[in-house]
Specification:
Number of domains: 2
Distance between the termini: 66 Å
Structural class: alpha/beta
Helix content: 40-55%
Radius of gyration: 22 Å
Number of helices: 10
Largest sheet: 5 strands, mixed
Strand order of the largest sheet: 3-4-6-5-7
CATH architecture of the largest domain: Alpha-Beta Complex
Order of helices and strands: HEEEHHEHEHHEHHEHH
Strand content: 5-15%
Shape: globular
Protein backbone atom coordinates (compact mmCIF):
# COMPACT_ATOMS: atom_id res chain seq x y z
CA UNK A 1 0.00 0.00 0.00
CA UNK A 2 2.80 2.38 0.90
CA UNK A 3 4.46 1.73 -2.45
CA UNK A 4 1.17 2.30 -4.27
CA UNK A 5 0.55 5.57 -2.41
CA UNK A 6 4.07 6.74 -3.27
CA UNK A 7 3.50 5.91 -6.93
CA UNK A 8 0.21 7.85 -6.93
CA UNK A 9 1.88 10.89 -5.34
CA UNK A 10 4.72 10.82 -7.87
CA UNK A 11 2.27 10.36 -10.73
CA UNK A 12 0.17 13.25 -9.46
CA UNK A 13 3.26 15.49 -9.17
CA UNK A 14 4.39 14.59 -12.70
CA UNK A 15 0.90 15.25 -14.03
CA UNK A 16 0.80 18.60 -12.27
CA UNK A 17 4.15 19.64 -13.72
CA UNK A 18 3.05 18.51 -17.18
CA UNK A 19 -0.19 20.49 -16.95
CA UNK A 20 1.68 23.59 -15.74
CA UNK A 21 4.17 23.27 -18.59
CA UNK A 22 1.36 22.81 -21.11
CA UNK A 23 -0.45 25.86 -19.73
CA UNK A 24 2.75 27.96 -19.97
CA UNK A 25 3.33 26.82 -23.55
CA UNK A 26 -0.27 27.64 -24.44
CA UNK A 27 -0.09 31.09 -22.84
CA UNK A 28 3.25 31.76 -24.55
CA UNK A 29 1.72 30.75 -27.88
CA UNK A 30 -1.26 33.06 -27.32
CA UNK A 31 1.07 35.90 -26.33
CA UNK A 32 3.16 35.33 -29.46
CA UNK A 33 0.35 35.10 -32.01
CA UNK A 34 -1.60 38.02 -30.53
CA UNK A 35 1.44 40.31 -30.36
CA UNK A 36 1.07 43.37 -32.52
CA UNK A 37 3.89 45.37 -33.99
CA UNK A 38 4.95 48.50 -32.20
CA UNK A 39 2.10 51.03 -32.60
CA UNK A 40 3.28 53.59 -35.15
CA UNK A 41 3.13 57.20 -34.03
CA UNK A 42 0.35 58.00 -36.44
CA UNK A 43 -0.89 61.54 -36.08
CA UNK A 44 -4.29 62.51 -37.36
CA UNK A 45 -4.26 65.82 -39.19
CA UNK A 46 -5.76 67.57 -36.16
CA UNK A 47 -2.95 66.21 -33.95
CA UNK A 48 -0.15 67.81 -35.94
CA UNK A 49 -0.90 71.31 -34.72
CA UNK A 50 -1.57 73.28 -31.58
CA UNK A 51 -3.23 76.68 -31.14
CA UNK A 52 -0.87 79.45 -30.05
CA UNK A 53 -1.82 82.41 -27.85
CA UNK A 54 -3.22 84.24 -30.90
CA UNK A 55 -5.47 81.31 -31.75
CA UNK A 56 -3.40 80.42 -34.82
CA UNK A 57 -2.34 76.90 -35.76
CA UNK A 58 1.34 76.04 -35.34
CA UNK A 59 3.02 72.79 -36.27
CA UNK A 60 4.13 70.70 -33.29
CA UNK A 61 7.88 70.04 -33.02
CA UNK A 62 9.49 66.59 -32.95
CA UNK A 63 11.70 64.98 -30.34
CA UNK A 64 14.18 64.45 -33.20
CA UNK A 65 14.66 68.23 -33.35
CA UNK A 66 17.26 69.97 -31.22
CA UNK A 67 15.87 71.06 -27.83
CA UNK A 68 14.84 74.70 -27.43
CA UNK A 69 13.78 74.57 -23.76
CA UNK A 70 15.37 73.23 -20.59
CA UNK A 71 12.30 71.32 -19.46
CA UNK A 72 9.14 69.91 -21.04
CA UNK A 73 6.33 68.58 -18.86
CA UNK A 74 3.89 66.02 -20.28
CA UNK A 75 0.56 65.71 -18.47
CA UNK A 76 -1.92 63.12 -19.81
CA UNK A 77 -5.49 64.16 -19.17
CA UNK A 78 -8.80 62.37 -19.67
CA UNK A 79 -11.97 63.74 -18.02
CA UNK A 80 -9.86 65.75 -15.56
CA UNK A 81 -11.98 68.93 -15.42
CA UNK A 82 -11.88 68.98 -11.61
CA UNK A 83 -8.33 67.93 -10.79
CA UNK A 84 -6.30 69.38 -13.67
CA UNK A 85 -6.81 73.13 -12.94
CA UNK A 86 -5.56 72.72 -9.36
CA UNK A 87 -2.51 70.80 -10.53
CA UNK A 88 -1.76 73.33 -13.29
CA UNK A 89 -1.99 76.29 -10.90
CA UNK A 90 0.55 74.69 -8.58
CA UNK A 91 2.88 73.65 -11.41
CA UNK A 92 2.87 77.02 -13.17
CA UNK A 93 3.27 78.91 -9.89
CA UNK A 94 6.33 76.86 -9.03
CA UNK A 95 7.88 77.07 -12.50
CA UNK A 96 7.40 80.84 -12.70
CA UNK A 97 9.20 81.23 -9.36
CA UNK A 98 12.18 79.40 -10.79
CA UNK A 99 12.19 81.92 -13.67
CA UNK A 100 14.24 79.80 -15.98
CA UNK A 101 11.53 78.15 -18.02
CA UNK A 102 10.30 81.37 -19.62
CA UNK A 103 7.07 82.04 -21.45
CA UNK A 104 5.22 80.00 -24.06
CA UNK A 105 4.29 77.69 -21.24
CA UNK A 106 1.34 75.54 -22.30
CA UNK A 107 0.58 73.63 -25.45
CA UNK A 108 -2.53 71.48 -25.66
CA UNK A 109 -2.54 68.42 -27.93
CA UNK A 110 -6.10 67.20 -28.46
CA UNK A 111 -6.11 63.55 -29.48
CA UNK A 112 -8.73 62.37 -31.93
CA UNK A 113 -9.18 59.05 -30.13
CA UNK A 114 -8.29 57.65 -26.72
CA UNK A 115 -4.79 56.17 -26.99
CA UNK A 116 -4.53 55.20 -23.32
CA UNK A 117 -2.29 56.87 -20.75
CA UNK A 118 0.89 55.48 -22.26
CA UNK A 119 -0.14 56.45 -25.78
CA UNK A 120 -1.02 59.99 -24.68
CA UNK A 121 2.32 60.45 -22.90
CA UNK A 122 4.15 59.04 -25.91
CA UNK A 123 2.47 61.63 -28.13
CA UNK A 124 3.43 64.40 -25.70
CA UNK A 125 7.02 63.18 -25.39
CA UNK A 126 7.42 63.08 -29.18
CA UNK A 127 6.19 66.69 -29.34
CA UNK A 128 8.49 67.99 -26.60
CA UNK A 129 11.12 70.70 -26.84
CA UNK A 130 12.99 70.22 -23.55
CA UNK A 131 16.46 68.94 -22.80
CA UNK A 132 14.72 67.03 -20.03
CA UNK A 133 11.18 65.67 -20.12
CA UNK A 134 9.04 65.27 -17.00
CA UNK A 135 6.01 62.98 -16.86
CA UNK A 136 3.42 64.15 -14.32
CA UNK A 137 -0.11 63.02 -13.50
CA UNK A 138 -3.07 65.38 -13.77
CA UNK A 139 -4.22 64.69 -10.21
CA UNK A 140 -1.34 66.64 -8.64
CA UNK A 141 -0.64 63.83 -6.15
CA UNK A 142 3.08 64.61 -6.29
CA UNK A 143 4.06 68.17 -5.46
CA UNK A 144 5.95 69.97 -8.19
CA UNK A 145 8.88 71.24 -6.10
CA UNK A 146 9.95 67.58 -5.91
CA UNK A 147 11.18 67.91 -9.48
CA UNK A 148 14.33 69.32 -7.89
CA UNK A 149 14.87 65.95 -6.19
CA UNK A 150 14.59 64.22 -9.55
CA UNK A 151 17.01 66.70 -11.14
CA UNK A 152 19.53 65.96 -8.39
CA UNK A 153 18.95 62.25 -8.94
CA UNK A 154 19.82 62.68 -12.62
CA UNK A 155 22.95 64.69 -11.80
CA UNK A 156 24.12 62.00 -9.38
CA UNK A 157 23.97 59.45 -12.23
CA UNK A 158 26.52 61.35 -14.33
CA UNK A 159 28.35 60.63 -16.52
CA UNK A 160 25.33 59.57 -18.58
CA UNK A 161 26.00 56.96 -21.29
CA UNK A 162 24.95 58.49 -24.61
CA UNK A 163 23.34 61.32 -22.59
CA UNK A 164 20.67 58.91 -21.31
CA UNK A 165 19.41 58.74 -17.73
CA UNK A 166 16.08 58.45 -15.88
CA UNK A 167 14.98 59.54 -12.40
CA UNK A 168 11.80 57.87 -11.11
CA UNK A 169 9.71 59.37 -8.34
CA UNK A 170 8.93 56.74 -5.73
CA UNK A 171 6.28 56.23 -3.04
CA UNK A 172 7.95 53.10 -1.67
CA UNK A 173 8.94 54.92 1.53
CA UNK A 174 5.23 55.49 2.22
CA UNK A 175 4.31 51.82 1.91
CA UNK A 176 3.86 51.16 5.65
CA UNK A 177 1.52 54.12 6.02
CA UNK A 178 -0.47 53.20 2.91
CA UNK A 179 -0.94 49.61 4.08
CA UNK A 180 -2.50 50.88 7.30
CA UNK A 181 -5.08 52.81 5.26
CA UNK A 182 -5.88 50.08 2.71
CA UNK A 183 -8.12 47.05 2.96
CA UNK A 184 -6.47 43.61 3.21
CA UNK A 185 -7.69 42.83 -0.31
CA UNK A 186 -6.08 45.92 -1.86
CA UNK A 187 -2.89 45.28 0.11
CA UNK A 188 -2.80 41.73 -1.26
CA UNK A 189 -3.28 43.04 -4.80
CA UNK A 190 -0.47 45.56 -4.28
CA UNK A 191 1.99 42.93 -3.06
CA UNK A 192 0.98 40.58 -5.86
CA UNK A 193 1.54 43.26 -8.49
CA UNK A 194 4.93 44.25 -7.03
CA UNK A 195 6.01 40.59 -7.05
CA UNK A 196 4.99 40.16 -10.70
CA UNK A 197 6.86 43.33 -11.69
CA UNK A 198 10.01 42.08 -9.94
CA UNK A 199 9.69 38.47 -11.12
CA UNK A 200 8.77 39.16 -14.76
CA UNK A 201 10.10 42.54 -15.84
CA UNK A 202 11.94 45.09 -13.70
CA UNK A 203 14.52 44.46 -10.99
CA UNK A 204 15.72 47.01 -8.46
CA UNK A 205 12.86 49.55 -8.76
CA UNK A 206 10.40 49.31 -5.87
CA UNK A 207 7.78 51.67 -7.32
CA UNK A 208 7.39 51.52 -11.10
CA UNK A 209 3.93 53.13 -11.19
CA UNK A 210 4.54 56.58 -9.74
CA UNK A 211 3.60 59.01 -12.51
CA UNK A 212 6.44 61.44 -11.69
CA UNK A 213 9.43 60.56 -13.89
CA UNK A 214 12.20 62.73 -15.34
CA UNK A 215 14.09 61.61 -18.45
CA UNK A 216 16.85 63.14 -20.48
CA UNK A 217 15.75 63.85 -24.04
CA UNK A 218 17.90 61.03 -25.38
CA UNK A 219 16.53 58.51 -22.87
CA UNK A 220 12.95 59.53 -23.65
CA UNK A 221 13.55 59.14 -27.38
CA UNK A 222 15.17 55.71 -27.01
CA UNK A 223 12.62 54.22 -24.60
CA UNK A 224 9.40 55.63 -26.04
CA UNK A 225 10.52 54.71 -29.56
CA UNK A 226 10.56 51.10 -28.38
CA UNK A 227 7.31 51.13 -26.38
CA UNK A 228 4.46 48.76 -27.25
CA UNK A 229 2.11 49.02 -24.25
CA UNK A 230 -0.17 52.07 -24.31
CA UNK A 231 -2.34 51.40 -21.26
CA UNK A 232 -1.65 51.37 -17.52
CA UNK A 233 1.31 48.95 -17.56
CA UNK A 234 3.34 51.11 -19.94
CA UNK A 235 5.58 52.31 -17.06
CA UNK A 236 6.79 48.76 -16.50
CA UNK A 237 7.68 48.19 -20.15
CA UNK A 238 9.34 51.61 -20.26
CA UNK A 239 11.66 50.65 -17.39
CA UNK A 240 12.16 47.15 -18.83
CA UNK A 241 13.38 48.77 -22.06
CA UNK A 242 15.59 51.19 -20.11
CA UNK A 243 17.24 48.33 -18.22
CA UNK A 244 17.74 46.40 -21.48
CA UNK A 245 19.60 49.37 -22.96
CA UNK A 246 21.51 49.80 -19.66
CA UNK A 247 20.16 53.31 -19.16
CA UNK A 248 21.00 54.34 -15.56
CA UNK A 249 17.91 54.77 -13.36
CA UNK A 250 17.62 56.53 -10.00
CA UNK A 251 14.64 55.90 -7.71
CA UNK A 252 13.92 59.04 -5.70
CA UNK A 253 11.51 59.34 -2.76
CA UNK A 254 8.89 62.05 -3.37
CA UNK A 255 6.03 63.53 -1.39
CA UNK A 256 2.73 62.02 -2.42
CA UNK A 257 -0.90 62.48 -1.41
CA UNK A 258 -3.79 60.28 -2.48
CA UNK A 259 -6.26 62.35 -4.52
CA UNK A 260 -9.85 61.24 -5.08
CA UNK A 261 -11.02 60.53 -8.62
CA UNK A 262 -8.67 57.73 -9.72
CA UNK A 263 -9.64 56.04 -13.01
CA UNK A 264 -8.32 52.69 -11.77
CA UNK A 265 -10.91 50.08 -10.80
CA UNK A 266 -8.93 48.14 -8.14
CA UNK A 267 -9.59 44.49 -9.09
CA UNK A 268 -10.11 44.66 -12.87
CA UNK A 269 -7.36 47.22 -13.49
CA UNK A 270 -4.83 45.18 -11.51
CA UNK A 271 -5.95 42.02 -13.31
CA UNK A 272 -5.41 43.73 -16.67
CA UNK A 273 -1.99 44.99 -15.59
CA UNK A 274 -1.05 41.50 -14.35
CA UNK A 275 -1.93 40.08 -17.76
CA UNK A 276 0.07 42.85 -19.46
CA UNK A 277 3.11 42.08 -17.28
CA UNK A 278 3.00 38.40 -18.19
CA UNK A 279 2.58 39.19 -21.88
CA UNK A 280 5.39 41.77 -21.84
CA UNK A 281 7.79 39.12 -20.54
CA UNK A 282 6.57 36.33 -22.82
CA UNK A 283 6.53 38.48 -25.97
CA UNK A 284 10.12 39.58 -25.48
CA UNK A 285 11.12 36.06 -24.42
CA UNK A 286 9.57 34.42 -27.50
CA UNK A 287 10.90 37.06 -29.89
CA UNK A 288 7.50 38.47 -30.81
CA UNK A 289 8.90 41.81 -29.68
CA UNK A 290 12.58 42.56 -30.20
CA UNK A 291 14.80 45.29 -28.82
CA UNK A 292 18.11 44.26 -30.39
CA UNK A 293 16.84 45.34 -33.83
CA UNK A 294 15.75 48.67 -32.41
CA UNK A 295 19.18 49.10 -30.83
CA UNK A 296 20.82 48.56 -34.23
CA UNK A 297 18.40 51.06 -35.84
CA UNK A 298 19.20 53.68 -33.20
Amino acid sequence: MASLSLQLVVLGAVLGVALAAAALILISFVAFVTATEMPPLHRHEEEKFFLNARGQKETLPSIRDSPTKQLSIVVPSYNEEKRLPIMMDEALGYLEERQKYGSDKIRVITLVKNRGKGGAIKMGVFSSRGEKILMADADGATKFPDVEKLEKGLRDLQPWPDQMAIACGSRAHLQTESIAQRSYFRTLLMYGFHFLVWFLCVKGIRDTQCGFKLLTREAASRTFSSLHIERWAFDVELLYIAQFFKIPIAEIAVNWTEIEGSKLVPFWSWLQMGKDLLFIRLRYLTGAWRLDQIRKMN
